[in-house]
Amino acid sequence: MSLVKAFKGIVYNPSRISDMSKVVCPPYDVISPEEEARLQKRSPYNFIHVMLAKADAKHGSDDARYVKAGEMYRQWLKDGIVVEDTKPCLYYIKQEYKIVGQKQSRMGFLAVMKIEDEKSKLFPHEKTHAGAKEDRYKLWCALKAACSPIFVCFSDRQKKVEGTFSRKVVQTKPFIDVTELDGTRTLAWRLDDPELIADIVNSFDGQNLFIADGHHRYEVSKRYREMMLAKHPEATGDEPWNYVMTYFTNIDSKELQIFPIHRIIKSFPQDISFLEDIFRMDLVKNRADLAVMMAKAGRNEHAFGLYTKKGTYLLRLKNKMQIDQHIKEGSRDYRGLDSLILKAFVLDKLDIKSEDITYCNMDIEGAFAAVDNGQGEAAFILNPVRIEQLRAIALNGEKMPPKSTYFYPKALSGIALHQLGS
Question: Are residues 270 and 235 in the same domain?
Fold first, then answer.
């Protein structure tokens, strides 16, 4: 049995849905309450109604909203709002977006990946929370379907995926072409040619694969599989619940970028002179220059930005030898994570609790605004984790703290679902 294979996705029926932009939505874990309300109003068939079903008069309790989601999904199937594709496909996805005004793009594809208990070459890199896993498990049980993929990096140095796309796929009409409010454009195509699929699938043999995003969903898929194995001891191993829907992208591609997650601190000392014992501190006259200064310093040093209403600072760790004194656990790769260094050298020293920290994904201006608006007294700006760091830590069998990496853009939900059973 192949580690990766094509599948018959459950997709929106174009004869019933004329405008796909009204029904797809971002992943559940990046949707703000304001965006959730907007998506609910966009269409009665927006995927948000299934992915984040709301309580109503009939389904008032927390668990009952999962029942509601399952009922709604099955009604959509019955009414032909969503249908199963007739052939197993790989679903190519290209996303075009801008970062600091610069055009970027990333290509990948949806497939399903075998869940393996032993000798698995799939490496996670981030710790998970029990609450988020329980929520998704209840939803998957109600739907009998996986509604969002995990995000996995693979190596495509021979550019088989990219080559097939440029030779065969891009010449066909995408079945999804939508632009989100932030300007990100997502296009999706089907590849159903068995020979081309086999060539791509076979390239995964023996590869190390790395979970970039969706660690909670992967653990949910394993739990769902364990439940089904207990019910079906005669299973062959090829049942759909033995596989997890996965978005794959090339780890060797320049298009793959990791973005930082900044820390907003609710309460912070007015006197920051204590930081001079740990860091070389440079006052930054124009805060717009901080990102460039950090990127330059971060090539050879552990560098952070600090923003308060009193000023903007570039912090550079004075002595790398101190890392081993303050961080005892993990490999050298692990101990070199900026998020751990910040926690050990500053946050723990000030006894700042996790509930007093909020996070700002990749947007340095958003971190500045959080302080300006009084949401916090200080913002620590971080450089992104490097791909080689992620790879090394994952291969060591270690897991980073939550909120260490942010992969952007996220793959939209609603492009395809993976049916786990009848």
Answer: no
